[in-house]
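Quick illustration, no need to memorize.
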Amino acid sequence: MSERWDEDEGVVVETRREEKVRRPRMYRVLLHNDDYTTREFVVEVLRGVFHHSEGDAVRIMLHVHYNGIGVAGVFTREVAETKLRTVEQLAREREYPLRLTMEPEEDDDE
C-alpha cells in the first residue's frame, strides 16, 4: 500500500499505476477427418484427452466425419499444444493418420 508523506520532510511520494490484467489468448484444437482413423479411436481421444462425455464425443466425431473438421476443445496455447502432441503420439502408436491443428480464437478486444 502506498503512503503519502509530507514533501517538506524530503520524502518522495509514490504513485502506483493500476495494472490491467488481460486474459490469455485462447486456441481451438481442430480435428480433421480422414478415411483411415476409426470413429472409435476419435471418440476415445475426445473422451480421454479432451475429457468430453460419451455423448459429446460422439457428436463431435460425427461432426468431423460429415463436415471434414471440428473443434475438440478451446485452451490456452500451452495446453492446446500439449493436447495436440499427445493425440498425435497416440495416433502414431496406433498407426492412424489423424491430423490436428490449432488456431487462435477471435479476440473480442481487438
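Helices lie at 39-48, 54-67, 77-93.
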